[in-house]
Design brief:
With 308 residues, this protein is an alpha/beta fold. The chain is 38% helix and 15% strand. It has helices at 16-34, 58-69, 87-98, 114-121, 139-152, 171-182, 212-215, 240-247, 251-254, 277-280, 287-305; strands at residues 47-52, 73-78, 104-109, 127-133, 160-164, 187-191, 207-209, 221-224, 262-264. The strands form two sheets. Strands 7-6-5-8-9 form a five-stranded parallel beta sheet. A four-stranded parallel beta sheet has the order 2-1-3-4, with helices on both faces. It binds N-carbamoyl-L-aspartate. N-carbamoyl-L-aspartate binds next to helix 2 and helix 6.
């Protein structure tokens, strides 16, 4: 059995067994909650800090809910983008907050690698969980996407997953690829305009495509991504109407995928830019299931890193 994780900063390099253990544990949390258990006092007396240097709706709320459902106390420390403190200031913030006796820090930051820096500087015994760093990793999103797919299509080795949109700036896409590969997915297609795709060498084993009609053919799950304008220079911004015509998910395109193809999106969605409203709200949409699974995955991760 692989060792209990002390921190969760990325899914890259995690043993398949650790990923499967977290997904199984998330299912246990889901079952417990389905049977009316709203509070599992697993983490009673522990304190969790939400340290978000970038905006967030679902991730922050869902970590907070997850921690509270496990009986932990939660402190929210929100810092708008404009007041992001870096370098020493970040560590000063860390040490100030740590002096209040925290057990876990959940961090979101625009700089890739911030969670690892916190692991290095945090007091021993404080667990660090990455809630998204730059374009690098968003491990709990990767896990909740894998869980959502597994609930419908556990046959990962037979599955084609197409990830379409602004892959270049997407930490979600990277963590999805790491989770899906660990679970045995053979065909992962990354699709988008050339300017919004990473180089093939960055994610070995994936197919790169600029043609969404071809890339969605036979897909069992399609994960749409938002144009992350906040990470782009103004000159990089594509024209939204022509972007939707080439890379938007509408009914006509979805019909090219496998029957019952899961339609996924990490949110926030931009209707009419990367996804048509009738597809986002349609029968194949799993977007709200993803949100629901996010709470169970985060409960599983908190229980893992704070387990005694
Ligand atoms: C994503 C993120 O912040 O990386 N959102 C999320 O956590 N659900 C994706 C995005 O912002 O587009």
């Amino acid at each position: 059995m692989s060792q209990r994780l002390r921190h969760l900063t990325t899914l890259a390099g995690l043993p398949t067994e650790a990923i499967t253990r977290l997904l199984d544990r998330a299912e246990t949390m889901r079952e417990a909650c389905a049977h009316g258990t709203r509070k599992l006092n697993l983490l009673a007396g522990r304190t969790v800090l939400n340290l978000f240097f970038e905006p967030s709706t679902r991730t922050r709320t869902s970590f907070e809910l997850a921690a509270r459902r496990l009986g932990a106390d939660v402190i929210n420390f929100d810092i708008g983008l404009s007041s992001t403190a870096k370098g020493e200031e970040l560590f000063d913030t860390l040490h100030t907050l740590e002096a209040m006796h925290l057990d876990a820090i959940i961090v979101r930051h625009k700089e890739s690698g911030t969670p690892e820096s916190l692991v290095k500087h945090a007091m021993s015994g404080v667990a660090v969980i990455n809630a998204g760093d730059g374009n690098r990793a968003h491990p709990t999103q990767g896990l909740l996407d894998a869980l959502t797919i597994r609930q419908h299509r556990p046959d990962f080795d037979q599955l084609t997953v197409t990830i379409c949109g602004d892959v270049l700036h997407s930490r979600v896409a990277r963590s999805d690829v790491h989770a899906l590969q660990a679970l045995g997915t053979k065909t992962i297609r990354l699709c988008g305009p050339a300017a919004l795709l990473p180089g093939a060498e960055e994610l070995p084993g994936v197919e790169i495509s600029h043609d969404f009609d071809a890339a969605i053919e036979g897909a069992g799950a399609v994960i749409m991504l938002r144009l992350q304008k906040e990470r782009m220079a103004a000159t990089e911004l594509p024209d939204e109407a022509s972007y939707f015509a080439r890379y938007g998910l509408d009914k006509r395109r979805l019909a090219r995928a496998d029957k019952g193809c899961l339609v996924m999106h990490p949110g926030p969605i931009n209707r009419g830019i990367e996804i048509a409203p009738d597809v986002a709200d349609g029968a194949q949409s799993r977007i709200l299931e993803q949100v629901g699974n996010g709470v169970f995955v985060r409960m599983a991760v908190l229980a893992e890193v704070l387990g005694r």
